[in-house]
Protein: DNA 3'-5' helicase
Amino acid sequence: MSKKECDTVTDMVGGALPYHMDLPDSVRNETQRRWEKNEVKILCATIAFGKTVNKPNVRFVIHHTLPQSLEQYERQCALAGTDGQLSHCVLLYSFNDHLRVLRLIKEDIPKPPPNVMAMKEGSLKNVLRYCENVAECRRKKLAAAFDEKYSAEQCIATAGPCTICEALMDGKQPLKLYDFTGEALAVFASMRMLRNTCISYMADIFRGCLTKKRVKQTMDDHSHGRLPFFGLGSGLTDTDCQRFMQKLVIDDYLYLRLTSTRHMTVIGYAALGKKGSNLLNKYKQQENVPPNERIYLHVSDAKEKRRSSKGHTDLDGDDQTNNNANKRKRLSSAK
Structure:
């Protein structure tokens, strides 16, 4: 988190102390001393603190802000449970968090060389892939990023499995993998007709969502109900429609143009990326796309048959709107 966020969260959490580089050395040293002596239970700190920590009984590491890389995430998680006792690592996540992280990266390096920015964006997208993963053991996924081997069976055997393995242990049905190549091509073909559009609104178009008054009015005003991908996701939940659009961004089929608002927030407007353009120009029909270039997504399984795009397996969906689609998810695992 930033220094400002560090102070803000400290004020929200009772009994916590802040730790960041804008504080005087004497204050930081005293804060660390009190924490190591167990006089303070909670610290709200920037990544500067983790470099000096040597405390065995850390029970929780909570990431309030999206890490910039999996390496950074792994280093910070490693602070928990060094005494071998059960400890927890929690990451609070929303897809839009990465827009602010990108802005912070660009502010830190005002004119970065293209290769440096591409490397940092690639690292951040690896974090997004980790967070958006809904089907594979989180520990296995993280280990694979560092060329290490770990199995879901090992995770299940621990005292605190990751959230995905825990859900399977509780009897929750795993999500199924579907081919969304046809839907993706329809999105790509529509991009020239969309201007200054966020992917959350594109997800509403994809689902054919006409129950939200403001969304319906916007669609009517701009004839977005006639777009090729309108309603193709009508058999999906709001969450899965959002995840589909997010996947197209994470996998570089679409890209987001960052714009700062007068309230100092960051908005990302979707545009067709080179990868999406190449796929559209190369394969006009989804039937021609080879397996290694097709686009797949794990989604909730179905109960009621809905319409879907040509060539796509019919999906059953939950017709209830998930109003928490854009809220931050809690991704956690125990150590």
User: Anything to note?
Assistant: The first strand starts at residue 16 and ends at 19. The first helix runs from residue 3 to 12. The mean pLDDT is 83.
